[in-house]
Amino acid sequence: MSKGRAFVHDDQCPFCQQGLPHDLLDELAKLLDGDRQEKINLIDAQITAYELAIHTLEAAVDGALAEPLSKETDLKAAWDTAHALLKANLATMRLKKATPSEPMEITPNDMQPMKDALSTLNTRIGSFNQRIQNKVAERSAIREAFWKNMCRDRIDTYRAHDARIAPLNQQLTAAQTTDREARTQEADYVGTLSELRKKQEGVDASVATINERLKGLGIDSFSIARKPGEGSLYCLERPAHGESSAQSLSEGEKTLISFLYFIELLKGSKEQGTAVDISKTVVVIDDPISSLSHNFVYDIASIICHELIKPPGGQKVRQVIVLTHNLFFLHELVYQIAGSKLAKAGDKCQLIRVVKGEHSRVVPMDARDFANDYDALWQVMQDAKEGLMRIQVVPNTMRCILENFFAFTGNTKQFEDILQQLSAEDGTFRPLERFLNRGSHRDETNIAHIDWGQFDINYYLAKLETLFQAAGHPDHYRLKMGLPET
């Protein structure tokens, strides 16, 4: 009836074409445009609100479905079911608006499956985030799972491998056990042999020790061996030649064997079955490196020092007197006894010199008297520091020290650069810089006309230390000046 009002023309009924009462349209308007219209408007508002709620829910669900973990849940299926019912209800509501008089029924939508799916998704997201926060544990778990899968997929191959390798592992274990037992037994035998040699009387033990010392010195061209068929006689033996004449030994080799035999002789006794109290023995060694190569100077000094003077954990002889003409050997021997502090060598040993003339004299000797040239230069600096040396000799001594050091290290260019840098930082240093850098002022006389009295010893020492610091060797300066380590 409401739709037919639009077709009324000249008060004629659009359905039967009969005339209408003059107030029918007004009365009809009162009927249709009153309470009925309000109800229709209410239906329309509900439809709009319902449709908006569907759109909002669609956007939220689309965001949830975009999460990769949603594929591991029932969210998609639950949403498809719920969404279809929502669309059906919306269509029913629109139909109700078109035919308000017709009764319509809205089907209730059960959203519990959606809630369950969303709860499962949130749980999985939380678990994933926790795994990301603990990457180390997660990587370890992934690695473990990977190898478990790998093992499961290849279990037959692994079993075959284990079956084949098992006998080999057993053989290896048995061989290792046998080897350990053999090594232990060998160590026991070596210890027993060593003890037997200590108790052994005769020369066999000494000969074995001498041969070991020769090998330790790097000499393998000859050794001492028992002479075949001659009982207790011994001879010289060379590899691939057998017995050889002692005349084939050089003077140095004879001296070396004599020295080693003498060291062994100190342990022996003239009477069989008696022990030697080495603590009562006074040893005199006369020029043990005569005719020897310089290669053996260190070894001879080391044997005298570590076996007679201060044996580690052993008993030392009562006194050792060493006579020598060789300054290098004396320096090495004193160095092994007293270390690098030659100035205090007198605390460790007594140094004397025999001065021969019309009447021979025995005079005390300072270890610094036979220091090498470089050490002697540093001793001058130490004496100057103590006020025992005139200051005029200090600059030239500094120059000699620096030239020796940088020439030895091959950094003469670095030396010049350091001097220029210090001169740029300290204008007072320039006269000393010109003097120290010989190449910058070489002339016929090589004399620097400088009043050295303008500097004191502390200035010289400070600049010398600065030079070594700039060169990257501060410890060298402290060592040579006898200063404590920093």
Distance linking N and C termini? 113 Å
Uncertain residue ranges = 440-448
| Lateral arrangement of strands in the main beta sheet | 1-2-3
Q: How many E strands?
A: 7
Beta-strand proportion:
5-15%
Q: SSE string, helix = H, strand = E?
A: HHHHHHHEEEHEHEHEEHHHHHH
**Computed CA radius of gyration, to the nearest angstrom:** 55 Å
Integer count of domains: 3
Mean pLDDT, as a whole number? 78
Major beta sheet summary: 3 strands, antiparallel
Structural class by helix and strand composition: mainly alpha
What can you tell me about this protein's structure?
This protein is mainly alpha-helical and 486 residues long. The chain folds into three domains: 4-135, no CATH class; 271-371, no CATH class; 372-480, no CATH class. Helices cover 57% and strands 6% of the residues. The chain is built from 16 helices and seven strands. The protein has helices spanning 24-32, 35-66, 75-98, 112-133, 135-153, 155-199, 204-216, 251-265, 297-309, 327-338, 373-385, 393-409, 412-425, 430-436, 457-470, 474-480, and strands at residues 223-226, 234-238, 242-244, 282-286, 319-323, 352-355, 361-364. The strands form three sheets. It has a three-stranded antiparallel sheet. Helix 2 (35-66) runs antiparallel to helix 3. The longest helix has 45 residues, at 155-199. The radius of gyration is 55 Å and the shape is elongated. The model is unreliable at 440-448 (pLDDT under 50).
What descriptors fit this protein?
486 residues, mainly alpha, 3 domains, two-stranded parallel sheet, elongated
